[in-house]
Design goal:
Helices cover 71% and strands 2% of the residues. By secondary structure, it is an all-alpha fold. The chain has one domain: Na+/H+ antiporter like domain (Na+/H+ antiporter like fold, Up-down Bundle). Strands 1-2 form a two-stranded antiparallel sheet. Strand 1 and strand 2 form a beta hairpin. Helix 2 runs parallel beside helix 11 and helix 13 packs across helix 16. It is globular, with a radius of gyration of 21 Å.
Length: 411
């Protein structure tokens, strides 16, 4: 079919995905991809180090370290090291993810409804299918079903790092598609955490959180960008969110979505761009690797790897990540482009969509967070779930690398 016969190719608004609209968008995308690639490498090292230490002679030291409490009892913040990593450091990660989402909504691939349709639908389906497969395997096991959301998440840094290593020479649109899908996926994951993994709500603290967020929004509106005002306010918002009973990582996304991303006259960088430039290195080089170090270390000395990975819970997570994610992403993309006016970018092939679906099966960071929230007191289920996350992410990465290598050779 020629371009004249296919109006979707002549009208960019009808395209499902147009990776780069402006030079500014191209520079932003390039910086994000480079940072996340570096972060993925550090993340992998931190995770492997945690597994090695947890199963070595230093395993008991590692376990004691995670349970060591630090902080201030007077304000309700005397937490374990593992707790600080999950609630505190990951709030930084979600702040950056939220800023990425805000950028995409204003300038990027999510700024036009039709253009945004494919990655949004693919992200949603890529969360629904793994959860459904997880339920099918574990239906009837009420204790294990608590972790139904574990395989729904995608690790941006890890997935982009794998893509950077194995996907050299593949179209930039593939990277942008994956980034957009992963950002929407992260928003879905944090929404699930806020709704389904929150127990008791302190309404007074919740009201205070909303009030502080309103103050932050007003400061953004009136272009107040002094760091010595915004940083303490951000910490207060995080503290109030934590005290309200909602998982504190939600504070990161909330702040990001209220941060102004549009430029004003005479402004070289918006507050969102400035914040992202300052915070992203902290997230990439410190926050996420420390969390990975505290979360990935599963002690298999007494459990046994074969028995643990062979458990129903572990298999359900692996199936969700390795099978559910690609099915959701590919199936929804095919149906959308088949029965609507949406089209894939002309530089993308279905093998690229398959690669994105497989890369989306790398759960790691957020999956490990949901694992910790799901099985706080059950050590056995916690260990089985961690093995499932690590194994499923590894298998997804290996298959994705194979698919991309084949695609690159054919190209």
């Amino acid at each position: 079919m020629s371009n004249s016969e296919n109006p979707a190719k002549n009208d960019p608004d009808l395209r499902a995905f147009e990776a780069i609209d402006t030079p500014a968008e191209a520079r932003w995308l390039s910086r994000v991809l480079k940072d996340e690639t570096f972060g993925g490498a550090i993340l992998l090292i931190a995770g492997l180090l945690a597994i090695v230490i947890a199963n070595s002679f230093a395993g008991d030291w590692y376990a004691d370290l995670l349970e060591t409490k630090i902080g201030f009892e007077s304000i309700g913040l005397r937490l374990t090291v593992a707790h600080w990593a999950a609630d505190g450091l990951l709030a930084i990660f979600f702040l950056v993810a939220g800023l990425e989402l805000k950028h995409e909504l204003v300038y990027g691939s999510l700024s036009k409804p039709r253009q945004a349709m494919v990655p949004i639908v693919a992200a949603i389906a890529g969360m629904v299918f793994p959860a459904f497969i997880f339920y099918l395997i574990l239906r009837g096991d009420s204790e294990a079903l608590v972790g139904w959301a574990i395989p729904v998440a995608t690790d941006i840094a890890f997935a982009l790092a794998v893509l950077a290593v194995a996907g050299r020479g593949l179209p930039t649109e593939l990277r942008a598609f994956l980034l957009t899908l992963a950002v929407v996926d992260d928003l879905g994951a944090i929404t699930i955490i806020a709704i389904f993994y929150t127990d008791d709500i302190d309404r007074n603290m919740l009201f205070l959180t909303v009030l502080l967020l309103a103050v932050y929004a007003l400061l953004q509106k009136f272009n107040v960008t002094r760091w010595y005002l915004l940083v303490p306010l951000g910490l207060l918002i995080w503290w109030a969110t934590y005290q309200s009973g909602i998982h504190a990582t939600v504070a990161g996304v909330a702040i990001a979505m209220l941060t102004r991303v549009r430029h004003q006259d005479g402004e070289e960088q918006s507050p969102a761009e400035l914040t992202e430039l300052k915070v992203r290195p902290i997230s990439v080089a410190f926050a996420v690797p420390i969390f990975a170090f505290t979360a990935a270390g599963v002690d298999l000395r007494d459990l046994g790897f074969v028995d643990t990975i062979g458990s129903q819970l572990s298999l359900a997570i692996i199936a969700g990540l390795v099978i559910g994610k690609p099915l959701g992403v590919i199936g929804s993309t095919y149906l959308l482009t088949k029965f609507t006016s949406a089209r894939l970018n002309e530089n993308l092939r279905w093998s690229d969509v398959l690669a994105v679906g497989l890369l989306a099966g790398i759960g790691f960071t957020v999956s490990l967070l949901i694992t910790k929230l799901s099985f706080v007191t059950d050590i056995m289920l916690l260990s089985e779930a961690k093995v499932g996350v690590l194994s499923g992410s590894f298998i997804s990465a290996i298959i994705a690398i194979t698919v991309m290598r084949i695609r690159a050779k054919r190209k």
